[in-house]
Design a protein that fits this description.
The chain is mostly helical. It has helices at 2-105, 113-125, 132-135, 143-155. Residues 63-72 have a biased composition (Low complexity).
Length: 165
């Protein structure tokens, strides 16, 4: 029995060794395949990253170029507006000067009816006819008034009782 079981056992051991070798090869193939997949995924990620970087650079260049174009356009528009204002000022200059000279040399000295009535009332009352703005001013105080006021201020004692506590 031992002899008959020996060839069977040997067959089983050989089968087990072959199975172990097949499993080891399968694991090696699996490792190789995983390594290939990882490298392929890294290449795919790198391609995607490069394409996104190119898109970003393109947009950045478009934006930068666009902003410099708009800057040039704004500069041109500003200069055009300044030139238009200068031309307009130069063309209106003679008319403005004429108007200023006319206003300075042709002063209206006529008196309105209300002003005339006011002057007549003052003359009837025996008061000198002063312009309305001088009448509203307070009379000037003499030096005596101000020195008298200063003397009174110096003689005054403090009225704060809480200071004497």
């Amino acid at each position: 029995m031992s002899q008959s079981s020996t060839p069977t056992t040997r067959l089983l051991v050989e089968a087990q060794q072959q199975a172990s070798q097949i499993i080891a090869e399968a694991r090696k193939l699996k490792q190789v395949r995983l390594k290939q997949c990882k490298e392929e995924a890294e290449r795919e990620v790198a391609r995607y990253k490069d394409s996104r970087e190119k898109q970003f650079q393109q947009k950045r260049n478009d934006t930068t170029t666009g902003s410099s174009d708009s800057s040039v356009t704004l500069q041109y528009q500003k200069q055009k507006a300044i030139n238009d204002i200068n031309i307009s000022a130069e063309s209106a200059k003679p008319q403005v000067l004429k108007k200023i000279i006319d206003l300075v040399t042709n002063v209206d000295t006529s008196i309105s009816e209300g002003q005339m009535t006011h002057i007549q009332r003052k003359l009837e009352d025996g008061q000198p006819a002063q312009p309305a703005e001088e009448q509203t001013k307070a009379p000037r105080k003499s030096k005596e008034d101000s020195s008298r006021r200063r003397k009174l201020d110096d003689d005054d004692e403090p009225e704060d009782d809480f200071m004497n506590i």
